[in-house]
Specification:
The complex is a heterodimer of chains A (212) and B (370).
Chain A: E1 7-15, E2 18-21, E3 24-28, H1 34-44, H2 57-70, E4 84-90, H3 95-104, H4 111-114, H5 121-130, E5 136-140, H6 146-158, E6 164-173, E7 176-185, H7 197-205
Parallel strand pairs in A: 4-5, 4-6
Antiparallel strand pairs in A: 1-2, 1-7, 2-3, 6-7
Helix pairs in contact in A: 1-2, 2-5, 6-7
Chain B: E1 5-13, E2 16-17, H1 19-27, E3 34-36, E4 46-49, H2 63-79, E5 88-93, H3 101-104, H4 110-113, H5 115-125, E6 133-135, H6 141-154, E7 160-167, H7 171-179, E8 200-201, E9 203-210, E10 220-228, H8 241-253, E11 263-265, H9 272-284, E12 291-293, H10 296-299, H11 306-320, E13 322-323, E14 339-340, E15 345-346, E16 351-358, E17 362-369
Parallel strand pairs in B: 4-8, 5-6, 5-7, 11-12, 11-16, 12-14
Antiparallel strand pairs in B: 1-2, 1-9, 3-4, 7-9, 10-17, 13-15, 16-17
Helix pairs in contact in B: 1-11, 6-11, 8-9
The chains are: A alpha/beta (212), B alpha/beta (370).
């Protein structure tokens, strides 16, 4: 383990038709499936980004989680675009869209579906939305691996490769989905916990628990 | 900062098994790219570098896993790293992994396609007890795997990293690039004015990185960097500024001066947009006079393995003091011309650059040095 000197300055968890920000449920929907739920959240928060509807479900999930994570409150201008890193992971890669693309190959293969058959496309979507130009990494793990994400994000900040990092988990396959994103910064607020795998795991498991 | 030594490297490709075997074929001007008639993959003939359909089949491992297994086995033997070493991490790099299974059965269960499951099987086979890491970041996966290994070793988390990448060409992948009109109708022509798209290729490659000086075989991974264009998910930057940023940051990371770079192994996919962007980036970085090639004419685009295969060939170029000609290049076809090598060039090389870019707007570069 790398000894962390950073803090989690925001978190966003999306699961079971609920969006949590910093330990509080900020949106609950009665929508039945993942697509409906994400669309209703998009409308609820009035996110105004027509490209949203071009994205595949996995990118929509990661994109909305990032919008809520950063919120209207985060001032990106304090960082240079090239110093903002995005380090994401999941278990099922882009399999949800892989299957959908594979179906199109029986008829006419669809380039607009094929482009989403890579999990890091969601990093591209987030980068385009905010103009982030720093480090990227997409890791696949059998389950949420806070040790890998914390180590990698910490080393980016501590080796001077990035000044801030958005890291976490965005997984979607059919009806199953879960996102848990963390904003990692060197600065410290009144309620910002230290950046550690234990804190990440605690937030991942109990998103409605207030921060310690 | 600690040196990161290259303890071993190994390529499995349609050109052969092992780095020196591959390099002999390249020096002789052989290419793995050929006209293919594979009804299982395409209703029409196409140009790609593929293994014989009978190779790497059978057994309990998928074709993707077998490619990695063969490459890792040989790389570990060359390196001298013993199984059971807890200070060694396995890093697997791929864009699509086992997705070729979808060609035969669209309902292949997730656990059979899962890349983390493949990585766990391979780690167990080689008794590498640390949890394996899987990098899946489009066509920079191979370089990002090397950079990840380097950084984890620098941070003191591991002594050694076995970075291995592979991709298998399938109907899935071929039809996808075809749907983008991105496939060449013949042999690909990187940086040429008549370039009309890519050739796809199959392959696997492994680089073993180590901080231990007893594994110093004379070559180092000196630095690396990654960036995003923040421009378009399927097209590269219009300016090349972001790849340029990556090149400059990788030089800083390596404590290398621009003047030290004796050769650049480009991504050079032979699509109109990639080569144009890459030429702009290299020019912006002030490296447009440096000899460059693209190896895509020999191997095709091997996707998640490309960064590894092309880094290894670059390292062999450094060992032998030979720059390979860039197949398919006759007349400059980019607005900022590069010094594309067209004949086998004998020259001592001490520091080289390898670049890559991919869907999602990602860019990566590494500095390799003696």
């Amino acid at each position: 383990m790398i000894k962390s000197m950073e803090h989690i300055t925001a978190s966003c968890v999306i699961e079971n038709r609920t969006i949590y920000k910093n330990g509080k449920a900020v949106y609950i929907s009665g929508a039945l499936d993942a697509i409906d739920f994400l669309s209703s959240a998009y409308r609820h928060f009035d996110l105004q980004y027509p490209k949203f509807y071009k994205m595949d479900p996995l990118s929509r999930l990661g994109w909305i989680a990032t919008e809520i994570l950063l919120g209207p409150g985060w001032d990106t201008s304090i960082y240079r675009p090239q110093d903002i890193a995005i380090v994401l992971s999941n278990a099922n890669s882009s399999l949800d869209t892989d299957r959908r693309y594979n179906e199109t190959t029986r008829d006419i293969p669809s380039p607009s579906v094929f482009v989403y058959t890579l999990p890091n496309i969601m990093i591209g979507e987030i980068s385009i939305r905010h103009g982030f130009k720093g480090e990227n990494a997409f890791f696949l793990s059998p389950s949420f691996d806070p040790v890998l994400l914390a180590n990698y994000s910490s080393l980016l900040l501590q080796q001077g490769i990035a000044s801030t990092a958005i890291t976490g988990w965005v997984d979607l396959l059919g009806p199953q989905y879960k996102a848990a994103l963390f904003l990692i910064e060197r600065t410290q607020g009144p309620d910002t916990p230290d950046f550690s795998p234990e804190t990440m795991q605690a937030i991942f498991q109990n998103p409605s628990k207030p921060w310690m | 900062m600690n040196d990161i030594f290259v303890a071993a490297d190994h390529i499995v490709s349609p050109l052969g098994m092992g780095t020196s075997h591959n390099f002999r074929a390249l020096k002789a001007g052989k290419t793995g790219v050929d006209r293919q008639e594979r009804p299982a993959m395409s209703d029409h003939p196409f140009y790609a570098a593929l293994f014989d359909p009978a190779e790497f089949t059978g057994g309990s491992f998928t074709k993707f896993e077998q490619l990695l297994q063969v490459s890792i086995t040989d790389a570990l033997n060359i390196s001298g790293i013993r199984p059971g070493d807890k200070r060694t991490v396995l890093i697997i790099c791929s864009t699509k992994g086992n997705a070729h299974l979808l060609d035969e059965d669209p309902n292949t269960p997730p656990e059979n396609i899962s890349l983390p499951a493949s990585a766990a099987r391979l780690a167990k086979t080689f008794r590498l007890d640390a949890a394996p890491i899987v990098v899946s970041n489009a066509c920079i996966s191979g370089l990002l795997g090397m950079i990840t290994g380097m950084r984890l070793i620098r941070a003191g988390l591991f002594e050694n990293a076995v970075v291995s990448g592979a991709d298998v060409i399938s109907r899935f992948i071929l039809s996808g690039f075809g749907s983008f009109q991105a496939l060449s109708s013949g042999h690909c022509k990187p940086f040429d004015k008549d370039r009309d798209g890519i050739n796809l290729g199959e392959g696997a490659a492994t680089v073993v990185l180590s901080s231990r000086s007893d594994y110093n075989k004379g070559l180092r991974l000196r630095g690396g960097s990654v960036s995003n264009d923040a421009n378009h998910i399927s097209g590269p930057s219009r300016t090349g500024m972001e790849l340029c940023q990556t090149i400059e940051r990788s030089l800083l990371d390596a404590f290398a001066a621009r003047e030290e770079i004796g050769f650049i192994s480009t991504h050079g996919t032979a699509t109109s947009y990639n080569d144009e962007m890459e030429a702009k980036a290299i020019t912006l970085a002030g490296l447009n006079h440096v000899p460059v090639n693209s190896l895509k004419g020999y191997y095709g685009h091997t996707l998640g393995a490309a960064g590894l295969i092309e880094s290894i060939v670059t390292m062999q170029s450094m060992r032998e003091g030979l720059i390979l000609p860039s197949p398919g290049f006759e007349q400059n076809g980019v607005t900022t011309p590069l010094n594309v090598v067209t004949t086998l060039l004998s020259t001592p090389l001490t520091t080289c650059l390898k670049t890559a870019s991919g869907f999602g707007g990602c860019n990566a570069a590494v500095v390799l040095g003696k």
